[in-house]
Amino acid sequence: MTVKTGIIFITLALGCLAIPTPKSEDLSQFFGHEDFEDSPDGRIVGGSVAPSGAHPWLVALTTGSMVRSFTCGGSIISQRTVLTAAHCIDHLFQVGQLTGSLRMTAGSNRWNGAGTTYFVTGNATHPNYVSQINKNDLAMLFTMMDIALPERVRPIAISYEYVGAGVMTRVAGWGRTGAGAPNPSRLLQIDLTTIDGERCERDVAEANEKWPNMRLPHTESHIELCTFHSRGRGTCNGDSGGPLVRVSSGKQVGIVSWGFPCALGAPDVFVRLSAFQSWIEKNIDECEYEYDE
Ligand SMILES: *[C@@H]1O[C@H](CO)[C@@H](O)[C@H](O)[C@H]1NC(C)=O
Fold first, then answer.
1. Which of 37, 75, 216, 255 is 20 to 30 A (C-alpha) from 271?
2. Parallel, antiparallel, or unpaired for β 268-272 and 252-259?
3. Whole-structure pTM value
4. Which of 103, 122, 157 is nearest to 13 (CA)?
5. DSSP H stretches of helix in the chain
6. SS3 category, 206
7. Which of 81, 93, 121, 136 is the pocket-test mutation for ligand 1 (most atoms within 8 Å of CB)?
């Protein structure tokens, strides 16, 4: 890049300069959240090992200074922006700041493997996120450095087309292989078929009657997208934040959000990206540098 004499105008979009000061973190709080037993966080059960390089847009979110702990998945949607679930970062945000130990690793099929790790310099959480009922569960994380794009790292395109029933989708994650099971270090993936919104609302209401102790929310099909495979196959704790990808186009249509832990025979629920186009387009950090001579 040649910069000639004259004034250089650098245009930085939201998030580029937001650098939180690292602070000491409260590990107990984090581990408290890691108690997935009664958490409705999205979670892959009954999947298969993902071929290496099959999900080049996927990042692993981790925290911890001495021992790294896996938190969630996320998807690279620009060289400065990762899309994830709001509930993935909600508990990492204290006294107005994200924990200084939050990192994102790209380019590895192991969450603790040899990928490239990035610091997070800021976030945007959807203003209508409601943690109690997991609604509008989406957030963006920004990096200060451009995410490098070697062979196995690449942003994913988002499709804002409305997704109906019977669409084949794929999800990958380091989530548990069963409620209470450990997080696998190798990335797993599974293909899931979308179901009709009304059916999802009905099936989730029935599941809530069947398992009242889980106290899970209802679904709202205009902002949430559901899949169902079969009992014993689906998402599980730790898959949250990862992208739901339409197999025919390879574009992201959803974010893993929540479900009945895990693969109990109820639908898995995702953020429906087609409902959030303006918020995503407004907040995505393209960080274009304009040089004026
Ligand atoms: C960052 O995340 C926290 C926790 O979810 C949220 O309270 C805060 O509003 C977010 N910041 C922005 C700019 O959205």
1. 37
2. antiparallel
3. 0.83
4. 122
5. 27-34, 86-90, 197-210, 277-283
6. helix
7. 93
Cα 116 to Cα 11, 15, 48, 152: the distances in Å are: 26, 20, 24, 11
Place of tokens 């998030």: 15
Q: Is the CB of 123 under 6 A from ligand 1?
A: yes
Closest CA to 240 of 164, 158, 138: 138
**HSE value, Cβ hemisphere, 13 Å, CA-based, for 189:** 19
Give nearest CA residue, ligand 1 atom 11: 124
pLDDT under 70: residue ranges of the chain: 1-43, 287-293
CB of 188 within 6 A of ligand 1: the answer is no
Is 125 near ligand 1, meaning CB less than 6 Å away?
yes
pLDDT in tens, 248-282: 999 999 999 999 888 888 999 999 999 999 999 99
